[in-house]
Amino acid sequence: MRLSIPISAFVAAIVGFGGTLAIVIAAANAVGATQIETASWVTTICLAMAIESLWLSWRTKMPVITAWSTPGLALIAASSGFSMGEAVAAFIVTGVLLIATGLFRPLTKLISRIPPSVASGMLAGIVVTFALNAVKTIPIDPWLILPLIAAFFVIRLFNPALSVLAVLIGGGLAAFLTCPVGGLPTT
């Protein structure tokens, strides 16, 4: 087995979870959630994913991993003026609609007709605010962010599979080394 396969799997798992976790936290902040409510939200999502994955894996006799709705979270995080109750209600309605989509074949066929490029464009339109906000953080700590960006592009020239892993490890190490004693950043 090539080394790039487990590295890609590791990076996908960490970035997939960490990236969407950041969107969950941004969505919670957008609806005015307290730290306890945010922690409860994250814990509930993680436990639900674990239970769903275990049940589906046992039922289908093959590994199945579930995920949360990144577009829905990104839409809430990018918007403002919603309360926590409205956000929870929106997720319940969305869940019911997703179940209906899976159960009713005509609806499934209709949704499958949406071209992938249109669906990707819709998601990109929502997620673009996160990319723009990432660029806005450069003036806050350029000595941390710019070397990581440079490392990504330089390493990508030689080994694209390792570029994300190198930045992930480098960013984690830099965050750990610059974090004050006690483990929490002072912002």
Structure report:
7% of the residues are buried. Helix 1 crosses helix 2 and helix 1 runs parallel beside helix 3. With 187 residues, this protein is mainly α. The chain has 2 domains: 133 residues, no CATH class; 50 residues, no CATH class. The chain is globular. It has 8 helices and no strands.
List the helices and strands and how they pair.
Elements: H1 4-30, H2 35-60, H3 70-78, H4 84-103, H5 105-112, H6 116-136, H7 142-158, H8 160-178
Biggest beta sheet attributes: none
Number of helices: 8
Q: Based on DSSP secondary structure assignment, what is the total number of beta strands?
A: 0
**What structural class is derived from the secondary structure elements?**
mainly alpha
CA radius of gyration: 19 Å
Instruction: Give the DSSP E fraction (strand runs of 2 or more residues).
Output: under 5%
Cα separation of the termini? 44 Å
Shape: globular
- The mean pLDDT is 80
- The tally of domains stands at 2
Portion in helices: over 70%
Residue stretches low in confidence (pLDDT < 50, at least 5 long) are none
Q: How do the SSEs run, as a string of H and E?
A: HHHHHHHH
List keywords for this structure.
mainly alpha; 2 domains; 187 residues; 79% helix
Short characterization:
With 187 residues, the protein is mainly α.
